[in-house]
Amino acid sequence: QVQLVESGGGVVQAGGSLRLSCVASGIIFSLNGMGWYRQAPGKERELVARIDLYGSTNFADFVKGRFTISRDNAKKTVYLQMNSLQVEDTAMYYCNSWGLVDYWGQGTQVTVSS
User: Which helix (H) or strand (E) segment is 83 a member of?
Assistant: First the structure.
């Protein structure tokens, strides 16, 4: 059974930082690309950042220079370091594993207050 379990969300003031973690089980983690998406109320889910199995990354324009994504294959964990958070970053953040089949976590809420 595949599980992606996110953690690290919370409430932070604008300008602050959070680090999200996603621990995977039930997949060959090192052979899967991993990503973070977010969905704000009333909006569609959107890509935040992705990292492939070789460690190559890509980011949405709205987080470039503020967020970084990394992975630890030994821990089967992907991280999203979020700095200089803005009110507009408030959303539910979802972990995604992409390969032959896509899998999703349940999400972790990030709320940025002004």
Answer: none
Q: Which residue has the tokens 């680090």?
A: 19
pLDDT, one tens digit per residue, over 79-102 is 999 999 999 999 999 999 998 889
DSSP state of 88: G
Task: Give the Å distances, CA to CA, from 71 to 25, 29, 36, 45, 79.
Answer: 14, 10, 12, 22, 6
Pairing verdict, β 10-13 and 108-113: parallel
For residue 105, is it left (φ>0), alpha (ψ between -120 and 50) or beta? beta
Between strands 46-51 and 108-113, the pairing is unpaired
Distance between CA atoms of 1 and 6, rounded to whole angstroms? 16
Q: Give the C-alpha separation, 18 to 69, whole Å.
A: 12
Closest C-alpha to 46, from 71, 67, 74: 67
